[in-house]
Specification:
The protein is of the alpha/beta class. It contains 16 helices and 25 strands. It has 2 domains: 12-45 and 62-271, Aldehyde Dehydrogenase, Chain A, domain 1 (3-Layer(aba) Sandwich); 276-469, Aldehyde Dehydrogenase, Chain A, domain 2 (3-Layer(aba) Sandwich). α2 packs parallel to α8 (228-237) and α3 (99-115) runs antiparallel to α5. The longest helix has 26 residues, at 132-157. It comes from Streptomyces violaceusniger (strain Tu 4113).
């Protein structure tokens, strides 16, 4: 029997090391063990900072191994309104800054982000549990994506003007850089002051560092922390806000949608959807096999993850022959654990879920689904993971695959946001489409079938904004459009020219492509 490996934290990657690097990189934003809020162009020691010095007293801990980390300095509603009013003042000045100057300042910010790429990625590892490879990719996608807009903005902004007020951004924790920081910089490039609420569950230090680098270059950015319930009146309903951009779940998104619809406010609301992968009259199993493992990147904690496979019953044995080896090969564990100090960081598919509560919720849903008739086809074991000795594993969930979850289970109709796949067997094309559309709209979908004509006939009936033929679809970068069907999206679609159109005003009358209360318009 081979000796058991003893893993250790790679030197220089501890949270304390990351924090000291933050203090050196942006001392104006990180002080005395706490993170500051940024508004009115100044860093403020306001808000109710969660303690982060003692494991016994701090509710702010990393999901990676329970290490205490800096907690968000939560503002009250009154201060949030002050921050929004100050952002409007910044907006009124910034919207008149010439485009070449805005472009220069955003470019300088991107150079600064590049200089701190490794630290930003390390913060993503600690705060939201991303493996090193995926954390680096999140930072790189933000930088490369905004650079594309810097190069293209002259064409896209021609004949358009900034909004009457700043853009307010409320986003989930899973992509602080490539979604939220990217959006902030593009919105500012288009002539708007920008406001962001720190995601409640993670990304505080990473976003604070990114915003500090932007503020140094004169970008009118506001970054505040607080509960959604307390800050929503300021960040969503305040008359100063020119547009609300939201990324998150359907329940919260529906409340935001109601508020912006009542006010007639410009909005971009990206919500979750049950993205499905269909298998119909398909035989190219060698092509499918390497794609299955990739669907587990970041533990399926992505808006474009594929947690549902809808499989033709007559092909189920062939599907399992490629699916099960792929899911058994998925690697999970502590993203910073190495065997030898000189080793490279591990190339893992995913680390922890965002917190222990989410891991328990998912385990309970799996247990309940099995109790009500779902068939467990695969259940991973934490014992096979890549972990430090005696580390806290409360936020970790191994891969699970269930056949035919009952209709009463949340796993039947909603996105699990964790490494749980559900398989549904079908016998007819009508059943295939019904199962793929069970979530009332999705952001992406994929249909694997051999015959191009069959794909061309069935794909338009799948209620997803993007549908791939045998390959997964993603949110996209640069000029690739993004949106959703059904309940997965409300408001303006984004990506490429559409993102600039969503946060600027054009000649009257203008109808933006998107899902609005009074119309639905697909891009031409």
């Amino acid at each position: 029997m081979a000796p058991t490996r003893t893993l250790t934290l790679k030197p220089g990657t501890a949270w304390a090391d990351a924090w000291q690097r933050c203090l050196a990189a942006a001392p104006e934003a990180f002080q005395d063990g706490r993170v500051l809020n940024l508004w009115d162009g100044t860093w403020h020691r306001d808000g109710r900072a969660l303690p982060a010095t003692s494991p016994a007293t701090s509710p702010a801990t990393t999901p990676v191994d329970g290490t205490p980390i800096a907690g968000p300095p939560r503002l009250d509603a009154t201060t949030a309104h002050q921050a929004v009013r100050a952002s409007l003042d910044q907006h009124r000045g910034w919207r008149h800054i010439a485009l070449p100057e805005r472009r220069a300042r955003v470019s300088a910010t991107l150079d600064a982000l590049c200089a701190h790429r490794g630290l930003l990625a390390l913060l993503l590892v600690w705060e939201i549990g991303k493996p090193w490879r995926l954390a680096q990719a999140d930072v790189d996608r933000a930088i490369d994506g905004v650079r594309w807009y810097v190069d293209e903005i002259d064409r896209m902004a021609e004949g358009r003007t900034p909004l009457p007020g700043p853009v307010s951004n409320i986003a989930s924790w899973n992509y602080p850089m490539s979604v939220l920081a990217h959006a902030l910089l593009v919105q500012a490039l288009a002539g708007n002051a920008v406001i962001a609420k720190t995601p409640t569950d993670g990304g505080l230090a990473c976003l604070t560092l990114a915003c500090a680098l932007a503020a140094r270059e004169g970008i009118p950015v506001t970054l505040v922390s607080g509960s959604g319930g307390e800050l929503s009146e300021a960040l969503v309903r305040a008359p100063e806000i020119g547009c609300v951009s939201f990324v998150g779940g359907r329940d919260t998104g529906a409340r935001v949608a109601t508020a912006v619809a009542d006010l007639g406010k410009r909005h971009i609301l990206e919500q979750e959807g049950l993205n499905a992968w269909g298998i119909w009259n398909f035989t190219d199993w060698d092509a499918l096999a390497p794609l299955i493992g990739k669907t587990f990147d970041y533990g399926k904690q992505r808006c474009t993850a594929y947690p549902r496979f809808v499989v033709q019953r007559s092909s189920f044995d062939a599907f399992l022959a490629v699916y099960l080896p792929a899911v058994r090969a998925v690697r999970m564990g502590h993203p910073l654990a190495v065997e030898h100090p000189s080793d490279q960081l591990p190339d893992l598919d995913f680390g922890p879920l965002i917190n222990a509560a989410k891991a328990k919720e998912l385990a309970d849903q799996v247990a309940e689904a099995i109790d009500r008739g779902a068939v467990p086809l695969h259940r991973g074991d934490l014992a096979d993971g890549h972990f430090l000795p005696d580390q806290d594993l409360s936020a970790y969930t191994p891969p699970v695959t269930l056949l035919n979850p009952p209709s009463t289970s949340p796993l039947h109709h909603a996105e699990p946001f964790g490494p749980v796949d559900t398989l549904v067997l079908v016998d007819t094309e009508a059943e295939l489409l019904a199962a793929m559309n069970a979530g009332n709209g999705a952001l992406v979908a994929t249909l694997s079938c051999d015959d191009p004509a069959t794909y061309a006939r069935l794909a338009p009936q799948i209620r997803a904004f993007k549908t791939g033929h045998g390959t997964p679809r993603s949110r996209g970068d640069r000029d690739e459009l993004f949106g959703g069907f059904g309940a997965s999206w409300r408001g303006a679609f984004v990506g490429g020219d559409l993102l600039i159109r969503a946060v600027t005003e054009g000649p009257h009358p203008e109808r933006l492509p998107g899902n609005f209360p009074d119309y639905h318009l697909m891009p031409s």
